Amino acid sequence: MSPPSLEGLVGNPRSPTPRVSYRTPPSPCDLARVPAVPRVVLDSNVVVDGLLRRRNASSHIMRSLFEGKLVAVVTLEVLAEYQMALRSRSVREAADRVGLSQEIISLYAEAVGEVVELVDAGIRFRCADPDDEKFTAASTGGHADFIVTADAALLDLGDVLEARVVTPDQFVETIE
Q1: Which of 1, 23, 79, 119 is most buried as measured by Cβ atoms within 10 A of its Cβ?
Q2: Does some domain include residue 28?
């Protein structure tokens, strides 16, 4: 019996994805070869909603991540939150209601961990919810273009240095 596949859920997470780093600006000659790939910090609600298909935009974002159309930057703290959220009782129960097995959740969590870019934490910006400050630190440390979230406390920030804080729907509109 072959292991379950994530194909059709969010794309093929096992396919190689191009890695683009903008830590040093590309030269004009490189611009023709380097695709415009946004660097984003994804709130854990986007990662979870992408799995459970609660929001079409979140599913679209996760599919784009697995297809290499964007780069998700994370710190160890953000990655730990993804893993904790995906293994939570509420996610297991919601997954069971939509017919996703625990094995699929584990494969998804593993795939997410493989496609993100680990960065050092940067400056933390104060949020109404201090637990959300880890996402601002990932954004500044990873030179993100966007923080994508459904969380009102983060959305209230508007911008975090060079990153715009947007909803999943706003982000999808921006990249299409």
Answers
A1: 119
A2: no
